[in-house]
């Protein structure tokens, strides 16, 4: 009729499918093969660990981490720690006070460090710096166990910046071993022990010996003029405020120097100084026995030649052009050693015992080192070089 019935066509299609069993059988075989292959792949991958299982992996990682051994502490014993152990208890904190305890009371005004170098009878003796105890009305020493003891200033020396204290020895269990500073070598280890900032007792810093014999100018009275030349050990071991008077020790735990001063300029770091033990020993002995250091005097008032103008050099002093350094005698005391040696006003001293002299401080140091000895003085008078001898 020109058209067809759709329901009839669908029925005919279903009838055709039912009548094609071979096709259906092939489809079933293909599905079965694919399913079997997939099953085998997943089983094999899981068995040999080829598939990532996040839960199992996390569990495995947790187990591995928890099984690592944990060490809570490590025992360290080195030459440095042995040296510190040997010297630490002999280094003390020093605290100074000013005021009258009976009336207005005392106020803590400073802090530093010290080294117990001797124990004799009921007392223990401590070396520290002069500037640590200078001006104090009361001094206390804190020993290693934390006890504070009253201290007596036995003696003090401004030029060498050394002082000796005495305390009750019943609380002292350790005395420092003093070393030989003349045997120091450049670059060897140096360890500073002290009380930096006044409250960090027993602090330790380490460095090296930067110079075994350095000479630095010292202004003792604060007038900006050089009064003395100190022979010091230079180190880069940190020496902070409060370390003054503490110990500089070698790798054997021996005290080789008394920490004294530190260059305070902000742009300079790693430069500290200590008084060599071989320089300190005779001063300590004098202070302990006599309370002071007796030094000889030449009996002259002098000025550095560098302060004299060119006209004064040629017309008054009549110096040859070759003389550029020395000290000028401004005044000679009557009956002094200088007068007995024949020295006069306007003589220019250029050498002592053959060593050149260029400043007041150098001359004073040479005189002090000649105590009990004879000293040869080379000087110029009216343009001529002469020599005399002084016996101290």
TrEMBL record:
InterPro entries membership: PDZ, PDZ_sf, Peptidase_S1_PA, Peptidase_S1_PA_chymotrypsin, Peptidase_S1C
GO biological process terms, semicolon-separated: proteolysis
Coiled-coil zones: none
GO molecular function, one term: serine-type endopeptidase activity
UniProt keyword annotations, A-Z: Hydrolase, Protease, Serine protease
Family membership noted in the UniProt record: Belongs to the peptidase S1C family.
Record's protein name: Peptidase S1
Lineage summary: Bacteria, Bacillati, Bacillota, Bacilli, Bacillales
């Amino acid at each position: 009729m020109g058209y067809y019935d759709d329901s009839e066509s669908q029925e005919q299609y279903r009838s055709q499918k039912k009548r094609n069993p071979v096709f259906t059988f092939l489809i079933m075989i293909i599905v079965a093969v694919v399913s079997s292959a997939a099953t085998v792949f997943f089983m094999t991958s899981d068995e040999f660990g080829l598939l990532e299982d996040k839960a199992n992996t996390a569990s495995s990682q947790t187990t591995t981490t928890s099984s690592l051994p944990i060490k809570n502490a490590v025992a360290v014993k080195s030459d440095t720690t042995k040296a510190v152990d040997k010297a630490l208890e002999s280094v003390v904190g020093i605290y100074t006070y000013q005021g009258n305890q009976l009336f207005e009371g005392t106020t803590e005004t400073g802090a530093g460090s010290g080294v117990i170098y001797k124990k004799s009878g009921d007392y223990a003796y401590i070396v520290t710096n002069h500037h640590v105890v200078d001006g104090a009305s009361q001094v206390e020493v804190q020993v290693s166990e934390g006890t504070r003891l009253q201290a007596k200033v036995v003696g003090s020396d401004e030029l060498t910046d050394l002082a000796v204290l005495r305390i009750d020895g019943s609380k002292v269990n350790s005395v420092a071993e003093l070393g030989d500073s003349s045997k120091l070598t450049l670059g060897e280890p140096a360890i500073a022990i002290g009380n930096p900032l006044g409250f960090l007792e027993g602090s330790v810093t380490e460095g090296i010996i930067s110079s075994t014999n350095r000479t630095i100018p010292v202004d003792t009275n604060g007038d900006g003029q050089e009064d003395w030349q100190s022979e010091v050990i230079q180190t880069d071991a940190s020496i902070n405020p409060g370390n003054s008077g503490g110990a500089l020790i070698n790798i054997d735990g021996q005290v080789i120097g008394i920490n004294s001063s530190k260059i305070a300029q902000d742009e300079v770091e790693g430069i500290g100084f200590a008084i060599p033990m071989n320089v300190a020993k005779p001063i300590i002995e004098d202070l302990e026995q006599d309370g002071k250091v007796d030094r000889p005097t030449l009996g002259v008032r002098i000025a550095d030649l560098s302060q004299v103008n060119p006209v004064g050099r040629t017309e008054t002093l009549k110096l040859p052009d070759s003389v550029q350094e020395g000290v000028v005698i401004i005044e000679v005391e009557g009956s002094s050693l200088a007068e007995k040696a024949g020295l006069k006003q306007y003589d220019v001293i250029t050498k002592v015992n053959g060593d050149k002299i260029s400043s007041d401080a150098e001359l004073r140091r040479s005189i002090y080192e000649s105590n009990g000895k004879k000293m040869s003085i080379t000087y110029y008078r009216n343009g001529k070089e002469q020599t005399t001898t002084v016996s101290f």
